Amino acid sequence: MTFREALVETRKLLACVSIDEAHLESELILRHVTGNSRVELFINPNHNLTQNQEDTLRQLVQRRQSGEPIAYILGTQQFYGLDFYVNANTFIPRPETELLVEKSIQWAKEHHHLTIADIGTGCGAIAISLAYHLPTATIYATDISSDALAIAKINLESHQQNGRICLLKGNLLEPLPEPVDLIIANLPYVKYTDLVRVNTYGYEPTLALNGGPEGTTLITELCYQASDRLNKGGRILLEIEPRQASVVTKLLVHLFPLATTETCNDFNGLNRIVSLTLPI
Fold this sequence. Notes:
By secondary structure, the chain is an alpha/beta fold. It is built from ten helices and nine strands.
């Protein structure tokens, strides 16, 4: 089987199970199997795969057809211009969460020597992205999952950020050794009854998806914990499911009546971030 034939066949097999980006994913899988770049695939379309490569390709395509996320098959996910190792022990970073990072960087660059806490860090994508762009910040990254923290540690090492980010195991803000200036969190916000509708359900850790009966259980707990974990003038940035904006905003106004609370829309015009800023 040639590169061209493999691409065509893989694309057809993925399209048959209604994978939206079958064209792109077929290329990614073939590149993963052969170790070739995109350019190498297309300038050598008649190059033959080895039998071992054909067998591996067939196995990976079957995994994708069964619904396994492409990120787990490839072992990597791009986020904010960086590549992160992921496996079934951690949540797969989503493009919409890049807005959370962007807003954090914009605010943080107006301040100096900030202390930042990334809560529910998973593979460490948010914390590492912040470390790249905020070289003077002190960054803590917490997670309740030891397995997720192990993945985050691998990513810290691969991005040479071991000395910049302190990984802490525990529930939300509880492991923090000191109050911080910025709390950033993309916590699970899917309602328990809606979990089966998530296209990665059964593959991604339920712990990383389950937001409880209303989808806001962990977000609510974090907000209550924040009263003595946030410095004066500090900020909280929370990614939410758009329909949760009103509930989360009302909670923050109740807990921090003197703070400024607002929402931020994503590129689809949907409420995606709730932010709170304490007075100085």
